[in-house]
Design a protein that fits this description.
Elements (H helix, E strand, L loop, with lengths): L2 H16 L3 E3 L6 E2 L5 E2 L1 E3 L8 H14 L10 E4 L5 H11 L3 E2 L25 E8 L3 H12 L6 E7 L4 H9 L2 E7 H10 L5 H13 L17 H6 L4 H13 L3 E4 L5 H11 L5 E4 L11 H14 L2 E8 L3 H9 L4 H4 L2 E4 L6 H10 L5 E5 L11 H13 L4 E5 L11 E4 L7 E2 L5 E2 L2 H7 L4 E4 L1 H4 L4 H19 L1
Parallel strand pairs: 5-6, 5-7, 7-8, 8-9, 10-11, 10-19, 11-12, 12-13, 13-14, 14-15, 15-16, 16-19
Antiparallel strand pairs: 1-4, 2-3, 17-18
Helix pairs in contact: 1-2, 2-3, 6-7, 10-11, 12-14, 16-18
The structure holds 6-sulfanyluridine-5'-phosphate (S5P).
EC number: 2.4.2.10, 4.1.1.23
Family: In the N-terminal section; belongs to the purine/pyrimidine phosphoribosyltransferase family.
Organism: Trichoplax adhaerens (Trichoplax reptans)
Length: 480
């Protein structure tokens, strides 16, 4: 980088750091990113909006970073909404490039429901501008909308590339070349050289950025199933998924107990008995009679879970629009406070996950998406399941895996969890279809079984738990 550009970049980064737009967290105090992933580095360029001069300078650097050479240029420019529109606008004004606007959501009223509304000729080459790129998902959304509207998109530019897989994904999967003014490592170097951060912090954040590529390779070099739970934990960014994989290894159990009992008192008693043999307990908090409901009992369950090293999975099956899900998750039964992870349908789109990410705040939380169901005659189609996988991949920082009938994804970070399990296969009551632990883990290559009535209706729930645990874990070991 030329000396003048470097000095301009240095001055911008130092001002961003001093104004709190670039922040770093010590181990254990990580920030939650938009995708739900935790990170010790936080780059929020929105504060550049407060300083017109600085914004103009930053836009100038972006423009220089994405020059095509040979006097070639772009026909128009589009900023990823909302954060990067101001940079696209500054470049548009400075270089007389038509500005294309992409809406964050399709208009619900009026004549046009399009995401991109422009009367520029089809085939115009549009440069896409973003402020910070991590996994590249937001740039991809804008590229896709522009292409759907007839634009050609070959190049995108960002101020900071966090070097967490976005550039590679854009290049290999979308044929878009991403240029950047600087990378996450360069930000660290410049701040370190200017005595803003210590060597320890620089090394810690650098290590995190290098180890947490948000894009798990399309085809992992080793088949996911050949990796054991412990190895997969190392490849998993979500803290809950990581914890579950580690618990399964430490306790030799891939059994979740579905505690569909009549009262919270019974649930607590059973949890203490079966706790040593399960990796998680699954609750349906809204099945308890309202008049008997005592929230303090659920906090007692939290204590038992922590003491006995198992997680709590609240099977809420959230399915509404984001705003309602947020209220159900945060206010209804205070689920966000005591449940490590929850289930959600993806039928209403990614807003459900975004609501859960928001409701989780700084807590270590995750969700499982319902990708398939065990009930007879359910309406889940293959196309729907594929849609669920796509949403999960776009939100892999928060989605820990799937409720499913078989292995669906080869990505080692996604945990496959299967309900409808009994030692004897067959039809249950009200349309439930049961498979055996062997069928689920060995033949269908799922990772974890959920067992409810097979345990709580057994004469000896502890003996039944041990039998399910041993059957499911032996099937897992046989596969390795
Ligand atoms: O497709 C599904 C998804 C879920 S989460 N089928 C299911 O049975 N479940 C849940 O798993 C269901 O709500 C119940 O809590 C548990 C199965 O219980 P069981 O008694 O049939 O083992």
């Amino acid at each position: 980088m030329a000396a003048t550009l470097l000095s301009s970049l240095r001055s911008i980064l130092l001002q961003l750091f001093d104004s709190g737009a670039i922040k770093f967290a010590d181990p254990g105090q990580e920030f939650t990113l938009k995708s739900g992933a935790k990170s010790p580095a936080y780059f929020n360029l929105r504060t550049l909006n407060n300083n017109a001069k600085l914004r103009e300078e930053a836009s100038g650097l972006m423009w220089q970073a994405c020059q095509l050479g040979d006097n070639a240029t772009y026909d128009c420019i589009c900023g990823v909404p909302l954060g990067a529109i101001c940079y696209a606008d500054a470049i548009s004004l400075a270089h007389d490039l038509p500005l294309v606007l992409k809406r964050p959501f399709a208009k619900q009223h009026g004549v046009s429901k399009k995401l991109v509304d422009s009367d520029l000729p089809k085939g115009s080459n549009c440069l896409v501008v973003e402020d910070v790129v991590t996994s590249g998902t937001s740039v991809i959304e804008t590229v896709t909308a522009l292409r759907d509207a007839g634009f050609v998109v070959t190049h995108a530019v960002t101020f900071i590339d966090r070097e967490q897989g976005g550039k590679e994904r854009l290049g290999t999967e979308y044929n878009v070349h991403l240029s950047s003014v600087c990378t996450g490592s360069q930000v660290l170097d410049i701040l370190y050289q200017n005595n803003k951060i210590s060597t320890e912090l620089k090394d810690y954040v650098q290590q995190y950025l290098s180890a947490n590529n948000m894009i798990v390779a399309k085809e992992p070099p080793v088949q996911a199933k050949q990796l054991n739970f412990q190895e997969r934990a190392l490849l998993t960014a979500n803290p809950v998924a990581k914890k579950l994989l580690n618990i399964m290894t430490q306790k030799s159990t891939n059994l979740i107990f579905s505690a569909d009992v009549d009262s919270l008192d019974t649930l607590l008693d059973l949890a203490s008995i079966v706790g040593p043999h399960i990796c998680a307990i699954k609750t349906h908090i809204n099945t308890f009679a309202v008049e008997n409901f005592k929230l303090d009992l659920i906090y007692k369950l939290r204590n038992v879970a922590d003491e006995q090293n198992f997680l709590i999975l609240e099977d809420s099956k959230f399915a509404d629009i984001g705003n309602t899900v947020y209220k159900q998750y945060v206010d209804g039964y205070h689920i966000c406070e005591w449940a490590d992870f929850v289930t959600a349908h993806a039928v209403s789109g990614p807003g459900v996950i975004e609501a859960l990410v928001k409701g989780s705040g700084n807590r270590d939380r995750a969700c499982l998406l319902i990708a398939q169901m065990s009930s007879d005659g359910n309406l889940v189609s293959e196309a729907y399941t594929n849609g669920v996988l796509k949403i999960a991949e776009d939100h892999s920082g928060f989605v820990a895996g799937f409720i499913c009938r078989q292995k669906l994804s080869s990505k080692p970070n996604f945990i496959h969890i299967t309900p409808g399990v009994k030692l004897a296969a067959g039809m249950g009551t009200l349309g439930q279809q049961y498979l055996t632990p062997d069928e689920v883990i060995k033949n269908r290559q799922s990772d974890v079984v959920i067992v409810g009535s097979g345990i709580y209706q057994a004469e000896d729930p502890l003996a039944a738990t041990i039998a399910y645990k041993e059957a499911a874990f032996a099937a897992y070991n046989d596969l390795l």
